[in-house]
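Archive entry. Fields below.
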Amino acid sequence: MSKPQGKIVIVPCSGIGKSFGTVSRVAAYQVTEEDRPEQTQLVPLALLVMGDEEYHKVITENQAITIDGCKLACATKMVQQSGGHVMQNFAVLEVFRRYRDFKPQGIAELNEGGEKLADALAKEIDAVVDGASTPAEGDSHA
Amino acid sequence: MAAFLETTVDKFTFRVDPTCFYNGDGIWVRMEDNLARLGLSDYVQQRSGDIAFVDIKPEGTRLAFGDYFGSIETIKVDVSLTSPVAGKVVRVNPALQSAPEIINQDPFGDGWLCEVECSDWENSRSRLMDASAYFEKMKNAAEDEVRSK
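PREDICTED_STRUCTURE:
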C-alpha cells in the first residue's frame, strides 16, 4: 500500500451560520494546529472554490480528508472536482450519531456539546492520519 | 398513485400526499383496511433539518388520539410526535434504527414511522385534516415564516 509522501490535507466545510459547519472547522483546526501539525495541512474550502492556484496544487499532490457539515458534501465534491483524492470523508451528522450526548449549538462560539463533538471528530481524524502515516508492513525503512 | 400537492415558498418546495390525513403537528396517516401507517410530513421534516435520531414507542404500545408516540432529534430541534389515531402500535419501521435519514429522503414512502391497529378510525378521522386542508395550513405557515424573517 502506498503511503502519502507529503502532508495530509484537511478540508472542512465552509458553511457559515450552521453549528455543524463550525464543528467541522474547530475539529480541523485542532488536528492541523494542535494534534498533528507535522502530518497535516489545512486547506480552506473557500480558496479552492475561488480557484487559488497554490491550494489547487496542494490538493492535487496530496491525499485529503474532508469534513462535510451537511448532505450537500461541498468539501468532498470540491476536492474531487479539483482533481484531488479523498482518502477519507467525515460527515458531522454521522459523527453526532456516534456521540449523541454531544449536541452542538452555537455558531460563532460552540456550546460545550459542540466543543466535545469537535474534539471527538478530531480524534477520529487523528486516528486516520496516524494510520496513513504508519509505515505498512513490508515497507522499506532503508 | 395520485400526484402530490406541491408549493414553493422562498427556495423550498413542499409536497403533500393527497392520499393521507394529517393532524395539526404535521403527522400523516394513511389507512389501509384497519391499519394506519404514520409518518412525518414533508414540511415538518424539511423545517426540522437532518434527522439524527428517531425514537418510536415499541410494538404493543397502546395510544389514544393525540398521545405522544415518539420523537425525532435533529441538529436544530427535538420534535415530539403526537398520534393522529387511537390504537395499538403493531410495527415500527425497522429501517429507522440504522438510517433515520430516510425520513428526510422519502417522508411519505420508505421513511414511514410506524403502523397502528386502529380502535376507532372514524372518530380519529373526524379530528384530522384532509390533504387539501393541510396543504393550505402548511402553505400559510411557510409563507408566514418567510414574511417574519
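CURATOR_NOTE: The longest helix of chain A spans residues 112-133.
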